[in-house]
Amino acid sequence: MTKYRVNKTKHVDQTKTVSFDFDGKSYHGFEGDTLASALLSNGVHLVGRSFKYHRPRGIMSCGSEEPNAICQINEDTDLTEPNVRATEIELYEGLKASSQNCWPSVNFDIGGINNFISPFIPAGFYYKTFMWPKSFWKKIYEPLIRWSAGLGKSPTKPDPELYDHKHVHCDVLIIGGGISGIIASKIAAKNNFKTILIEDKNILGGSTIFQKNENYKINDKYSGEWLNEEIAELKKLDKLIIKTRTSLAAYHSYNYLLAKENISDHLPLDKRNGGIRQRLWKIRADKVIVATGAIERPLIFNNNDRPGIMLSNSVKKYLDFYGVSCGFNNVIFTNNDSAYETAVSLKEKGISVEIIDIRKKSNSEIVKNAEQLGVKIYWNSTVVNTFGLRKINSIEIMNLSEDGSNVVGDKNRINCDCLALSGGWTPMVHMHTQSGGKLDFREIDQTFIPNEINKNHINVGSCNGDFELEEIINNTNKKVKNFLKVSETEFDNISILNSKELDKRNLWLLPNYISEGKCKSFIDFQNDSTAKDIKLALREGFKSIEHVKRYTTTGMATDQGKLSNMHALGIIADTAGVKMGTLGTTTFRPPFTPLTFGSIVGRSVGKFFDIIRKTSIHEWHIQNNAKFENVGQWKRPWYYPINDEGLHDAVQRESKAARDSAGILDASTLGKIDIQGTDASEFLNRVYTNAWSKLEIGKCRYGLMLNEDGMVYDDGVTTRLGENHYLMTTTTGGAANVLSKLEDYLQTEWPELDVYLTSVTDHYSTASICGPNSKKILTKIFPDKDFSDDAFPHMSYQNGKIDEINCRIMRISFTGELSYEINIESKYGKSLWEKCIEAGKDFKITPYGTETMHLLRAEKGFIIVGQDTDGTMTPIDLQMDWIVSKKKYDFIGKRSLYRSDTIREDRKQLVGLLTDDPNEVLEEGAQIVSDMKKKPIEMIGHVTSSYFSPNLNKSIALAVVKSGKKMSGQKLIVPMENKNINVTVSDSVFLDKENKRINA
Amino acid sequence: MFLINCPYCGERDQSEFSCGGEAHIVRPKQPTELSDDQWAEYLFMRKNIKGVQFERWNHAHGCRKWFNMVRDTSNDKIHAVYKMGEKPPVE
After folding, report:
1. Chain A contact for B12, CB < 8 A?
2. Count: domains in chain B
3. Which among A709, A751, A890 has the least Cβ separation from residue B85?
4. pLDDT of residue A555
5. Is residue B90 part of a domain?
């Protein structure tokens, strides 16, 4: 046992040794230790360097508020994690941790030079300095800042661990397992509420559980002992779920809360067995009881940041819970009674302690207790300086003036190896405010406390501003009874002995004989902001607390200012001469403590990241060497390379085959909407730009759909299957949106229409066969059917049968070739496809993918919504005036087609582009200009589709160009990085303008 | 994340719904009779108030029905839900 382990407690098992590494050195701790308590038991205080000045920093607290002791753990493994608080991580065998933000080592850090040049790097230094000269930014400032910025190192390998999400509903959720949380849980569970209690530590009991002081007793027992019995009883209740190692991250509206459960973080790496590491609980609670406690405040004075300077209650917890004395020569610096409990505890174990109290005098029971034990108390005094390079070794104190604004008398030097601070308590109101709750300011002890108006949650215990044991128990009991409508509880009549605090004095910034400019009085320890920085910000004109925060970075580190925000507010209020209550606070935002990315995404990683949709023919595509592309959630064959063919060669071959003989495309992914009802025709009239009433049964028609603003939204072919029955097809990516848009109009604007919409995209598989030989192939598949142009003309549909299975045959074309589509129930999709391939064998039928489809339609000048349009193109811009009905009174978007903006003649319009060099293929997205001389060069459009056409043996492109309609034959330039490409504006239809091939 | 009481399905998590913006903006029956300004008023202008607002919501991952909701945008309190075509509550 090390000499600092002075006390045996039941929370740390001193028979079970745990070995660990810190900064490459091996140490021993015990089961039940945190990394922080184990380091302290080895006398290690110095654990890191501060962010800006690289000052040596030590462990300060014992919980989530820790600003200094943040480590990198499991370095050089794929489990490495930065910014882990040593005060929270449970010690396990083989744990490897190291300090952050120091180079080459925590004991000798080059960056420490910043401490000596600190007068030159005040608040806003970065904003002020790196402005000029501009040319320095890229080569000097940015690399330097990037090298020195940041705390830990982020992992470079994929996270191998599993994370989970769990959705839970409960009657009562209690946040925090301290004394008030335990009382609340017991009342709730005993009264038959389905209750969940969450606690972020590994055991229940908060800071009462290690309380063993004569001045604080419940039913004649030490409060810790009493609570221990309560916990034992609590664990037997069956209406209650207790979750330890679970911290609340966020409290959203309607009592929806997120909590992170650590499942395996406390286990040695070899015992984790690939199980779940963390689970994110998504809790919807009927009622929430917040019992998150309070955080002890430090005091703000010169050089208040040396290793060995800690929070008083933490010193007590290390002693009474972990059995570790943080020093043998302790000084406590306080403004309140709670620090005297620490003094009594130390003194009772024979450890030297003295107290410096800024109050003038106090006669409370606990103070008398300390005095009786012989603790020396310096009343009305303050610390003005501290000494010791890597650990504190002495302090300098002086007396305070009557009003506390100055120091008087002589300096008195006291040796010490630990300075425990207590500046009072700050209720943890984070959860209350996250839920939308407001705060009130309580003058007497300068705290913000919850103002409860929300009927669905209450705050109990010290997070509600109740700090005395008696208040905590009685108020918690009373509030919970009221909240849960319970008439009596076991806590109604218990006897509580409680030393009461009689005197208070608070000074946000302690006075000094040293001038303010030379004092380093740290407020935010992690981000190195000092009282001086805050005052500078105020002098420079920042008034709002939110601005001061951002300018000085106070409260913006990984601890989110849990220790610093109140002092920053206090100093602003004092300096500006306003009341603190009127300043308000900065916003408390979730998460309360950082969440891992793993816990946020849960199982939605890898193949579960998004839904993957495959057609029924997918297997065949894989067997035939298809390369796939993602279209929305669909996997669509992109091209089918033969041997080691690349994209270009495959597409050239596929395109040629489709026009010379026959090609086949899996078109199953196109959106399909079944439309039925007596008003179906009228409905189509209103949603498409063209007329539908006169479409005969058995005929197909292409339709263009606009948004109400007149811009093209979707397109597709719709077939009239019966008098009141249509089948609409949409683009693959637009299917879901089109359906919701149509539903929206039907339900909200035209509820009088008798129309029913059903998505049937997944119900049918589609094989599309095109090319001059397609008719012959169809005849082989359907030998009884007459495919002559008279019997089965273009843009018509017929029913057919393959082996007694019904299918629909549409003669429609997206390639400009003679073309048929066969729709069949999805489960027969693959056999239909194989039948087509078999029937097409004699004609060398060639499967083609989306890339060839795009090329073929571009040759014909057919648009793809989303590629050639971008939500700013009207049908007129696309030169598709022919599809816009002049006769129809109204359709979606009609009125917008003649707004002043849409009738502008200089809008971007769709045109064809031919490169002067027919082998030069333009890049899609490339900008187009007409005049390279006039500066700045005006960009008049961009290329939307571009291919090398094997059928025309030249490069073709579609583009949108300002006033393009009038530019036919005009020369334009497409400037690229290394050259300018000369192009000529052409018609957008490059092949078969006469539409002969469709009837070939 | 609020709980929304779908008038057809009952209370469901917000993640099942999508918001369709301000409610009670009726599509003009005769758009061709409107001036550019009048049409733009219908097409583009939305109030987006801080406070009590009438909104359209869709139970997108549920019954797919549209309905109206009265919500205070400053604190997300939902004052009422009612079906399309029903009169909005007065207070």
Report:
1. no
2. 1
3. A751
4. 85
5. no
